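Re: [ENG-882] Designed sequences occasionally contain unexpected residues at chain ends

Forwarding the minimal case from QA. Structure tokens:
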């Protein structure tokens, strides 16, 4: 399984929640949320963030409006994805 570091996100305007994330990106790649979810579930790629020295794994969450991605570290879900820069 290849590991990719997520360095930026794109989200819907005026939606600062995890469900508002539309794309995730890193060095030389930018995928839709659906592509990231499918890759995690298929086991072909793993994704992680590194924010202020804190490593967190990106996981799939089943929400009331469908699946979305969120980071998990030290036994709890956290805000690392929302702390990333907006993808250009």
């Amino acid at each position: 399984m290849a590991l990719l570091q997520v360095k930026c996100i794109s989200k819907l305007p005026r939606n600062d929640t995890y469900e508002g994330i539309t794309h995730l990106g890193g060095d030389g790649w930018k995928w839709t949320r659906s592509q990231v979810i499918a890759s995690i579930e298929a086991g072909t790629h793993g994704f992680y963030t590194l924010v202020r020295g804190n490593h967190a794994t990106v996981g799939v969450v089943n929400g009331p409006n469908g699946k979305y991605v969120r980071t998990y570290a030290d036994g709890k879900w956290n805000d690392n994805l929302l702390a990333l820069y907006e993808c250009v």
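QA comment: On inspection the terminal residues look reasonable. The mean pLDDT is 91. Proposing we downgrade this to a documentation issue.
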